[in-house]
Design a protein that fits this description.
mainly beta; globular; eight-stranded antiparallel sheet; two-stranded antiparallel ribbon
């Protein structure tokens, strides 16, 4: 009887595990702790720029200590799957050319300097498989401190092509056109 009970218990666990895996494949990403977000803007150069990302929340945590970005480490610039940056036309990104296309968007925070990375590999989870050998472009910008804290990491794109990343009291901006 014990063997039969044990087998039934194991079978139930196995079936439950398979159902959970199947649900993950068709999961509702809006229910995640870091839900998906998207910002898209047609800028003055005529290009349409779109950023797809997941919004981590501070929840009382300290950036660089309890939550990313960590100093000197590649960050997916969001949560969950790597953030993507897409443009339908070639862009000038702070003086460097970025061809039309879709890119993984990563950053590295080093003190006041932030390296913004446009990587050719899409559909990766976090930055675990990030390879700099497939970077399309890297630019440097600065991080500033703002008085008003932003609880959920947020990207903004204005019509002039100014892209702003806000999270906590950190503000990172770079210009595309």
């Amino acid at each position: 009887m014990k063997k039969l009970f044990t087998i039934a218990l194991l079978a139930t666990g196995l079936i439950s595990g398979m159902r959970a895996t199947a649900q993950e494949k068709g999961e509702d990403k809006s229910k995640r702790p870091s839900p998906p977000a998207k910002v898209s803007q047609k800028i003055s150069s005529g290009a349409t720029v779109t950023i797809n990302y997941s919004q981590p929340s501070l929840k009382g945590r300290t950036i660089g200590k309890d939550v990313e970005p960590m100093e000197g480490k590649v960050w997916r610039t969001g949560a969950n799957e790597a953030t993507t940056f897409e443009t339908n036309k070639e862009l000038n990104v702070q003086g460097s050319k970025l061809p039309a296309g879709k890119y993984g968007l990563f950053t590295i925070f080093n003190g006041e300097v932030v390296t913004v990375i446009f990587n050719k590999t899409l559909n990766q989870w976090g930055a675990f498989n990030y390879k700099d050998s497939v970077d399309a472009l890297r630019i440097n910008t600065r991080v500033t401190t703002v008085p008003q804290s932003t609880e959920k990491m947020t990207f903004k794109i204005d019509k002039t092509g100014l892209i702003t990343l806000l999270w906590g009291t950190k503000k990172v901006e770079f210009k595309v056109g």
